[in-house]
Amino acid sequence: MQKTIIAAKWIDGFWDRWIVHGVEKDDISSIRSFLVDKESWVETWGALARSWAERAVSLPAAEAETAWRKASLYYHLAQWIIPERNEEKKEWLLKSLQAARIADELSPLETHYVQLDVEGKTCFGRVRLPVKAKGAVIIINPLDSTKEELFTYEDDFLQNGFVTVSFDGPGQGETYVHSGLKGAAGRWEQFIHLLIDWTSSHFSLPICVFGTSSGASWAIYSSGHPKVRKVAAVSPAFESKEIQLPAYFVERVQFVSEEKGSVWLPQLERTTFRHPVLLVHGKRDTMVPSEHIYRLYDRLPVGKQLLEFDDEGHCCNYKLHYIRGYAASWFQE
């Protein structure tokens, strides 16, 4: 936990993910120097979340929806720092879920809360419906993220006419906290196949998959499923001796892993790919070297595309809005 706080306090790039997912830069600047331990982190982000919730009450519906989503994101940040599955984490996660549901109620688009069983335990998901659906996009969240964090992903695909399907998988968010289901590579393989089959059984639409970082790795793995049409993968993570994952990330993942010492990524070198993949890479990515991306790209099937950005790092954070729009168009080709 302390490694995470040190990274947050001193490494500017730590915040890129949160900024592009909706956290205000001014909010980060106002509290960053006060983040010294778990208590200060939780109290500070909790207070900012309450501020956004209070602000939402007097706003028109569209603006109130945005404010509630920010409140949900900030409550998510409060629980995110707590790696253990305990009552404190559960309480903050519940506040995040409640704020997200209020935002959903204010939205003109329909939202359904759904469940999927993996090894007898419940995985929790959300499905949002556009006015007129052209297809369905399964959003695979990075390992230390939750479905509520990536609402901007949902918004972009919804605006392009896609149903969005987003679940907390094993070791993530609501699934980990409420069901106690931890992450493991084999369990995630089951989850991915069950999730695609679930989506296929509920929607008679072309199914595409989108993921970033570790979520991108599992998105590429899903390209081997016969019911998937296309996949877009941004900065897929690899488990390799040549690649050093951030220390704070490795430390955090151990709490939610069934097998210690593993970050439960798919073995892509052993995976058979079936359907086209849009592979996205930032050339300043210090976690995933370009040569790994190029070797993977060479193995992908016909119909593949490589989209690169000279000035972006891991996850191409500041190009994500453009990438999601590009992927939505490519999915429809």
Automatic annotation (TrEMBL):
Gene3D superfamilies: alpha/beta hydrolase
Protein name: Alpha/beta hydrolase
Species per Swiss-Prot/TrEMBL record: Geobacillus thermopakistaniensis (strain MAS1)
